[in-house]
Specification:
globular, Growth Hormone, Chain: A
Length: about 550
């Protein structure tokens, strides 16, 4: 695991060296929630913790290192490719559409298999599934680095996404079940917070690798992390935690594996429909949405569904899950399009663009433990609302920085977005899992993370659509012919090298393209602001604790 990841994790390890008594968590009003028939509460969570106390992890520090390392690897892979995508694009001779699938394929595969991972974790054992998945992820990473064609790297990235979808619910459930309830806030803050650091550090790491090595090392770096996490998991001595055997719900699997990919693919194609079948993207998106809705209906009526939607039917948990999806939408889009904007508009190199993203990263490091401790003291609701409001303010400031091309203003917005999103998500994620009984925590984790990854996938696709529509509205109806026209078309799709070439060959056209792309990026940030505003409404109307 990289040194700074261990340094951050070590800040949270002191919480496991003291034996504190278990305590009731309080709701947003500071009162203990009253149990309600048919509703999951922290009270039921307390009971499950007491029942499992004798099997608590004998090595909580090593447990947290292993699980945090695996999650960090997943989060890093979700964004590290973004800054390196132009280089991979050229090196493998990809089209713009196929290049985008290097990112989208990973996210869709992960979103589609997270719920399956949650069910398998409860069925065959969390630690067993974790070990299998981390080996598969390492194999997919090696295949990515060895890929010599576009189709090979896309298939390898999809295999990485499948392995990540199987791994993440297992690792999350292992962490939440391995520490006393009174210490869960700090433990989960460390687990998700360190991983979130890697999510945001992806552009920095990717830029450095492109600058000093080759893009293949983006994937090879996963191999030692996977080896360390696997070795630690073998030495943990954890009990085999599994639930009673339940079927895998083949109908639910088919609906999920066809619905979510069709929905995301259809949305992505809306921005560039095939000339001979312009109706296809809308039909695919509508069909995917229909199958996704059918999967929810099927889950609500089935005894042992793949997506146990009734587990989040509780009003606060439903609102919390939606908030987590919205924040994931924002953070994935920030990590990818923030670095692209710095290269396009401000002419940063890949490494400079990565370093320019640090204002988004540093607040996570500073806020993460405070957010976890605040949850342990006052619950989730106040930190969630506060974090969402700060995130919304930060995005609005970022839009001003994008429009005026002022990095100083943009950096202020990044600081607020990074800190606000951490305050919003750390307590919420911990509370959602704490509400679930231990025997179903793997399923709840898989369901919640499915929503988060779906939010990330849709966030990137919606930003692509916003950029495309804003650019189309800004640019002239026709581009010049010849090489200048070809370069202009590539620049409009985000090819930084083509834009730089036009600055020398046709400065007026390059200026027009720059304004169009700036408008598009501002529109993408505007979509993020609308999403967070919706999250604020949900936070104060749905994701509230009943008195």
């Amino acid at each position: 695991m990289p040194p700074f990841c261990l340094a951050v994790a070590n800040r949270g390890f002191s919480c496991f060296t003291e034996h504190a008594p278990l305590s009731w968590h309080r709701n947003a009003t500071g009162k203990r929630p009253a149990p309600t028939p048919g509703r999951l509460t922290r009270s039921s969570g307390d009971a499950s913790i007491r029942q499992m106390a004798p099997s608590a992890a004998p090595h909580p520090t090593r447990t947290l290192i292993a699980m945090t390392g695996s999650l960090s690897m997943i989060f890093l892979d979700a964004t590290v490719v973004g800054v390196a995508l132009p280089t991979i694009h050229v090196d493998l001779g990809l089209t713009t559409a196929s290049a985008s699938w290097i990112i989208t394929g990973f996210l869709i595969a992960m979103a589609s298999t997270l719920a399956i991972g949650g069910r398998l974790a409860d069925r065959i054992g969390r630690l067993t599934l974790f070990r299998i998945a981390i080996v598969l992820f390492a194999g997919g990473s090696l295949a990515c680095g060895l890929s010599g064609s576009g189709s090979a790297i896309i298939i390898a990235r999809i295999s990485q996404g499948i392995a990540a979808g199987l791994m993440q619910p297992a690792s999350t459930a292992i962490v939440i079940s391995s520490v006393p309830q009174a210490k869960r806030g700090v433990a989960m803050a460390t687990y998700f917070g360190v991983a979130l650091l890697f999510l945001l550090a992806g552009p920095v790491i990717g830029g450095a690798i492109i600058e000093f090595a080759s893009w293949q090392w983006i994937f090879y770096l996963n191999l030692p992390v996977a080896a360390i996490a696997l070795a630690l998991s073998i030495q943990l001595g954890l009990p085999s935690q599994r639930a009673a055997a339940r079927g895998l719900d083949p109908i639910g699997i088919v609906l999920l594996l066809t619905g979510l990919p069709s929905l995301v693919l259809g949305l992505e194609w809306l921005g560039r429909p095939p000339e001979t079948a312009s109706w296809l993207p809308a039909a695919l998106a509508i069909g995917g949405l229909g199958m996704t809705i059918l999967s929810v209906i099927h889950a609500a009526r089935t005894t042992h569904p793949l997506l146990h939607v009734r587990l989040i039917a509780d009003r606060p948990m439903l609102g919390q899950t939606i908030v987590l999806a919205i924040v994931s939408l924002v953070m994935s889009a920030q990590a990818v399009y923030g670095a692209i904007y710095l290269q396009e508009a401000l002419e940063f190199t890949p490494l400079q663009a990565g370093l320019g993203s640090l204002p988004l990263l540093i607040p996570v490091l500073l806020v993460i433990r405070s957010a976890g401790k605040m949850y342990d003291r006052i619950g989730f609701h106040k930190p969630m609302v506060f974090g969402l409001l700060i995130t919304l303010l930060g995005i609005l400031i970022e839009i001003a920085g994008v429009w005026w091309q002022a990095y100083a203003i943009l950096a202020v917005g990044m600081v607020l977005v990074g800190g606000g999103s951490t305050f919003a998500t750390t307590p919420v994620n911990t509370d959602v899992l704490a509400r679930a009984p231990d025997e179903q925590r793997g399923e709840v984790s898989g369901l919640v993370q499915t929503m988060r990854q779906l939010g990330s996938s849709i966030g990137i696709v919606i930003c692509v659509l916003a950029i495309g529509w804003a650019v189309a509205a800004t640019m002239p109806t026709t581009l010049p012919k010849g090489d200048a026209g070809i370069q202009a078309a590539r620049a409009l799709e985000g090819d930084v090298e083509s834009l730089r070439a036009l600055r020398h060959s046709d400065p007026p056209l390059a200026g027009t393209l720059k304004v169009a792309r700036r408008t598009g990026i501002a529109a993408a940030f505007g979509v993020q602001a609308l999403a967070v505003a919706a999250g604020c409404v949900i936070a104060v109307t749905i994701a509230t604790e009943r008195r």
